[in-house]
Amino acid sequence: MPNTARWAATLTLTATAVCGPFAGSALAAPEPGAAGLYAPSALVLTTGHGETAAAVTPERAVTLTCVPKSSGTHPAAAEACAELRVSGGDFDALTGRVGAMCSKQYDPVVVTVQGVWQGKRVTYERTFANECVKDSAATVLFAF
Amino acid sequence: MPNTARWAATLTLTATAVCGPFAGSALAAPEPGAAGLYAPSALVLTTGHGETAAAVTPERAVTLTCVPKSSGTHPAAAEACAELRVSGGDFDALTGRVGAMCSKQYDPVVVTVQGVWQGKRVTYERTFANECVKDSAATVLFAF
């Protein structure tokens, strides 16, 4: 390869290596995120007493952000993000809390999750027989 | 009052004073909040290029919490919360940015807001002709 071509190739490679991660192109991540570097993940979780979200006044609401770092008003944001990553963002595939003992009392609580998980919109609603069952359905995600 | 009754009354009053704020009852605020003291306000805002949220992949998503203090991944959380308070949580009543100069280019962006504002569920969607119009529709709320 002539020297000029070699230099050009080297420069191109260097530019790609240096600028690639910041280019916001499809190279870095499946979808551009808040800074063009990652797909956004930002959620609001609510809970309230009742059977359906439509009929329930949300009593508590927390935020959860998982990239670039775990944050939000969720009381255990880091663990909640870890749980979601393990389940691939599938709220029905969360691993319940081991050894939880809940009564069978029927005092339903409904949880909603809305927002975006890894670039995809999330609209989730699930009703639990009581608060204990809700808190135990995931290790920490629903315990807020 | 016999001594026993007086003691019972004192104990009841003490228990009410100590436990009241944590009881999640309707005494403290119009609606119980994250700590039973205020109505929750926690939102996720998204934006993406296109005409309707259903057809758009969210490119950016930020969280916004306004009580007990402003927080979240919104780049100007405190100002965004102040704007929402002024508008009474009405996303159509926000005051636009003064002196914004936007082109008439049609490159639509859609903003969604979901979650809870002062204890009430929020589901809001609005399409703007272009990014500049979106950013100027409110002082800071939609500029993320």
How does this structure look, described?
The structure is a homodimer of 144-residue chains. The first copy, chain A, has 144 residues and is of the alpha+beta class. The first copy, chain A, has one domain (23-137): Subtilisin Inhibitor, CATH 3.30.350.10. Chain A is 23% helix and 22% strand. Chain A has three helices and four strands. Chain A has helices at residues 3-19, 77-86, 131-136, and strands at 42-49, 60-65, 109-117, 120-128. Chain A has a four-stranded antiparallel β-sheet. The longest helix of chain A is centred in the first third of the chain and has 17 residues, at 3-19. At the A-B interface, strand 1, strand 2 and strand 3 of A face strand 1, strand 2 and strand 3 of B.
Short description:
The first copy, chain A, is α+β, with helices and mostly antiparallel strands and 144 residues long. Chain A is built from three helices and four strands, in the order αββαββα. Chain A has a four-stranded antiparallel beta sheet.
